[in-house]
Write a structure and sequence with these properties.
Order of helices and strands: EHEHHEHEHEEEHEHEHEHEEHHH
Strand order of the largest sheet: 2-1-3-12-11-4-5-10-8-9
Strand content: 15-25%
Bound molecules: nicotinamide-adenine-dinucleotide, 3-isopropylmalic acid, manganese (II) ion
Largest sheet: 10 strands, mixed
Distance between the termini: 19 Å
Helix content: 40-55%
Number of helices: 12
Radius of gyration: 20 Å
Number of strands: 12
CATH architecture of the largest domain: 3-Layer(aba) Sandwich
Shape: globular
CATH superfamily of the largest domain: Isopropylmalate Dehydrogenase
Length: 357
């Protein structure tokens, strides 16, 4: 198979972890007899420095021409006080929107070798295996009106959490389809005791569920969900929620997995005529300015995102399994990075995964 991939390493540790993810991708492609063609594109802070904008047209062209895009992370401290529309993070919102990837799948699982790395008790987290499905193109991130208006005591900041029925339906269907290949349970998370947008969310999810009688559905309020995630994570299979709730709760999931550096993600849109899904693959973590440039970031979230890409965008299940198995072997061997209590560098971990494959 020919794999046409656009690479957007972005900023900070995004560059370091993407380098290892690409080494792993090249290795798998070679080993399984596929053909890889990559393009590299600017996104985030580096794109602002080189072109003046966080999501240049050249990046849009390259990403939309590729079968799938692999992203590292965006964000640089020097832009911290810039307005949202000019910041590196806006580049990520731009590429997600341009690709139409509305469902962000964030698998959270506990690894045996990492049980002691979590501050939570082992028996609480052992056996945790869930996928957070975060709606990615709506809600507060894109809603209007937005902005800061006025001055003095009347100066006002506004964002709008808004969803249409169609936006809720498509991500809900994706969640139920995903549950069919898993433990057949969907938990929908909302704030319907306060927010109208959440009342519509719950209504639409309940409507869609009638088409999936084989899947169990329950609803949780988001505040309770934040608590249940650490009290009883094993109760969750597919956990569906809107954009901002998903951003926040998936970082909480990192505590179950042992480190934010462990979490991969797959952002999926509609199916292409070829039958493949449009996909953007990115670790959940950010550019980590506190450790950037030190070759100590954990690349496994990025490497896991390569496995997700092989599976979802190309249907290459054996290849994806080979990467996932190698990651597990490396965790068991103890050759892990500092966030997991080890001494291995970013590139050491990448090399160990290559060797294990
Ligand atoms: P962050 O995820 O970058 O870092 C949070 C903490 O986790 C830091 O202590 C960091 O060192 C650690 N960490 C993160 N990834 C790690 C890894 N792979 N290995 C080891 N340790 C890791 O979040 P932040 O500090 O809140 O944000 C920093 C910048 O990244 C901001 O500009 C933010 O907007 C951006 N950001 C980008 C993305 C993305 O591109 N998807 C995601 C989150 C944050
Ligand atoms: C994430 C990040 C992004 C988000 C930022 C950098 C725009 O936090 O992917 O979780 O909020 O979606
Ligand atoms: Mn986030």
């Amino acid at each position: 198979m020919k794999l046409k991939i656009c690479l957007c390493p972005g900023d900070g540790i995004g560059v370091e972890v993407t380098r290892e993810a690409v080494r792993v991708l090249e290795h798998v492609v070679r080993k399984f007899g596929h053909d890889l063609e990559t393009s590299e594109a600017l996104l985030g802070g580096i794109a602002i420095h080189e072109t003046g904008t966080p999501f240049p047209e050249d990046t849009r062209v390259k990403a939309t021409a590729a079968d799938a895009t692999l992203m590292g992370a965006v964000g640089l401290p020097e832009f911290d006080n810039w307005p949202p529309e000019k910041r590196p993070e806006r580049g990520l919102l731009g590429i997600r929107n341009a690709l139409g990837v509305y469902a962000n799948l964030r698998p959270v699982r506990s690894y045996k070798a990492l049980l002691d790395k979590s501050p939570l008790k082992n028996d609480r987290i052992d056996g945790t295996d869930m996928v957070i499905v975060r709606e990615l193109l709506g809600g507060l991130y894109y809603g209007t009106p937005r902005g800061i208006t006025g001055s003095g005591p009347e100066q006002r900041g506004t964002n709008t959490m808004t969803y249409t029925r169609a936006e809720i339906e498509r991500v809900t269907r994706m969640s139920f389809e995903l549950a069919r290949g898993r433990r057949k349970k969907v938990t929908s998370v909302d704030k319907s005791n306060v927010l109208e947008v959440s009342q519509l969310w719950r209504m639409v999810v309940t409507d869609v569920a009638t088409g999936y009688p084989d899947i169990e559905l329950d609803h949780l309020l988001v505040d309770n969900c934040a608590m249940q995630l650490v009290l009883n994570p094993k109760r969750f299979d597919v956990v569906l929620m809107e954009n901002t709730f998903g951003d926040i709760l998936s970082d909480e999931g990192a505590v179950l997995a042992g480190s934010i550096g462990m979490l991969p993600s797959a952002s999926i849109g509609d199916k292409l005529p070829s039958g493949a899904w449009v996909g953007l693959y990115e670790p959940v973590h950010g550019s980590a300015p506190d450790i950037a440039g030190q070759n100590k970031a954990n690349p496994l979230g990025a490497i896991g995102s390569v496995a997700a890409m092989l599976e979802y965008s190309f249907g290459l299940k054996d290849e994806a399994a080979a990467v996932n198995r190698a990651m597990e072997d490396v965790l068991n061997s103890g050759r892990v990075s500092a966030d997991l209590g080890g001494t291995a560098s970013t590139s050491d971990v990448g090399t160990s995964v290559l060797e294990a494959i």
